[in-house]
Amino acid sequence: MATQDIAPPVAAPRFAAVPNLPPSDAGRIRELAGLVERHAPQEGICPTAIPRLSAIKLSAPSDELVHALHGPAVCIIAQGAKRVMLRDEVYTYDASRFLVFTTDLPISAQVTHAKFNEPYLCFRLDLDPAEVSELVLQLGPPPAPRVPTSRGLFLSSVTDGMLDAAIRIMRLLDSPEDAATLAPLAARELVYRLLRSEQGERLAQVARTDSHASRVMRAVSWLKSNFAEPLKVDDLARECCMSTSSLHHHFRAVTSMSPLQYQKQLRLQEARRLLLSEGIEVSRAGYTVGYESASQFSREYSRLFGVPPSKDVLRLREATRQ
Question: Residue 32: its pLDDT value, please?
Answer without folding.
Answer: 96
